[in-house]
Design brief:
Layout lengths: L1 E4 L7 H10 L4 E6 L3 H12 L3 E7 L2 E7 L17 E5 L9 H15 L8 E4 L14 H9 L3 E5 H6 L10 E3 L1 H10 L2 E4 L1
Parallel strand pairs: 1-2, 5-6, 5-9, 6-7, 7-8
Antiparallel strand pairs: 2-4, 3-4
């Protein structure tokens, strides 16, 4: 049985690490910090039909995860006809402290790289354009998403307003007509 040390890893790294390992192995021992990392990995594994046993390991936990060896059943999803479009109107996710909101948005964008279903297009408006411009912690992930076929578009008016047009580093610019048409024709539009 392989042991994976996920201690001291920030969210969502422990779950992503375990997900990748379970794609190749049916039995794992995972070392985790107490709290959210243990809870998130346990929930992830159980939601995929794995058996999970936990034992205290010093200040953290050791989880033994055993899968059936068969691919996990996908969660039931509503059939989407048409493209999936993400509308990102802020450089933060949620309504809490700014620093936490920025960290959550960065983690969300990086985590998209690990999902099996990608959006066709990501539209960035208002302070969301800070994510696609020079100095953003999300640039590397956005460039990878673009390379995977996700269209990355930032509002030209917003870039002009914040004097960032010459600092755009991921994707291209767009206008409100294209944004409106994209949202109205989408099979699923998700606003963050």
């Amino acid at each position: 049985m392989t042991t994976i040390d996920c201690r001291n890893l920030a969210c969502p790294a422990p779950v992503i690490t375990v997900k990748k390992a379970l794609e190749e192995q049916t039995e794992l021992r995972v070392l985790l910090d107490d709290g959210a990392p243990r809870e998130n990995v346990t929930r992830f594994a159980r939601n995929r039909g794995c058996q999970v046993s936990e034992e205290r390991d010093g200040t953290g936990w050791a989880l033994t995860i055993v899968s059936s060896g068969e691919p996990a059943q996908k969660a039931a999803t509503t059939a989407v006809t048409g493209e999936r479009v993400l509308l990102i109107t802020s450089d933060r996710l949620g309504d809490g402290p700014e620093e936490l909101g920025r960290l959550l948005m960065k983690n969300f964008i990086h985590t998209l790289l690990e999902t099996s279903e990608l959006p066709a297009r990501m539209l960035f408006l208002n302070t969301g354009v800070f994510l696609t411009t020079e100095g953003s912690d999300a640039l590397e992930a956005l460039e990878k998403l673009g390379g995977m076929g996700v269209e990355i578009l930032s509002c030209g008016l917003c870039l002009d307003f914040f004097k960032l047009k010459d600092k755009l580093r991921a994707g291209g610019t767009t206008n409100m007509l294209t944004i409106a048409e994209s949202l109205l024709s989408a099979g699923q539009a998700i606003r963050l």
